[in-house]
Amino acid sequence: MISDPQVLDFIRKTEDSYPADSNLATAEDNRRNYDIMCAAFRAARPEDLPVADRRIADVPCRIYGEKTPVFVLYVHGGGFVVGGLDSHDDVCAEIADATGLQVIAVDYRLAPEHRWPAQIDDVAAVWRAVERPGVVVGDSAGAALVAGLCLRERGGHEPLGQVLIYPGLGGDRSWLSYSEMAEAPLLRTIDLDAYQTALHGEGLVTDPVARPLLASDLSGLPPAFIVTANVDPLRDDGPAYARRLNDAGVVAEWRNEPELPHGYLRARRSSDRARRSFQAIVAAIVRMSLGGK
């Protein structure tokens, strides 16, 4: 499944502090393990990059860089249960430094204490309050929120583009990746079930903003850059959404990353594969941002 020694080292380092069963633990224990793991990978911010914490629309946010005409809204992953401003701090700082754009990270409310739609409400509130053209970027659960935001804002204050990094978009569990990668390192199909229960309870989720692949009409949405990890139960969601967008007349590019598992952004400094993927993500953000200049 994975033979790249750099990727295998990344998986081992991750599992040293974040065992597979963390996703099935209590939210408190899961967050503690996740925070320890993220701290182990966290890199120093680029020198001279101004960073400030403030509330926007009463939602905690972290702002990287000075104000620019076009900004990047970053929505972190973590299954809607873990993660926050610190977990993806270095990713956001590096995006701001590499693109020259101001990045605003959103610390949306987490499940199970806050059920859906609290998360998308927070993200949408920040997006609307900034009132500038922007590119929206998210990884994993954050990518689902980004896709949902684009659906919510269609015909209104629409993003210039959406960048979805190993997104979970409500794909059909009969799809191959959910069985073929059911026991993939760093994210298993059983973990997805636990996270969905924390977010929505036991009921059937039919809201297309929560599961964008259920949307009957995807026309008029912003251009999309979708990148998936090949060793990931969520892998098949990305190409399915790209096809649906293309069929609706929306420009959508899909990129799949061989031998990389879910969560590989943290490996961008130690894995050549992850580094190249991160560079492609940065390039897509820059391309999309030019639509607002």
Automatic annotation (TrEMBL):
The keyword Transcription regulation does not apply. Residues 72-265 form the Alpha/beta hydrolase fold-3 domain. The keyword Hydrolase applies. Keywords: Hydrolase. GO terms for molecular function: hydrolase activity. PANTHER family: AB HYDROLASE SUPERFAMILY PROTEIN C4A8.06C, ALPHA_BETA HYDROLASE FOLD-3 DOMAIN-CONTAINING PROTEIN-RELATED. This is Acetyl esterase. It comes from Paracoccus sulfuroxidans. The lineage of its organism: Bacteria, Pseudomonadati, Pseudomonadota, Alphaproteobacteria, Rhodobacterales.
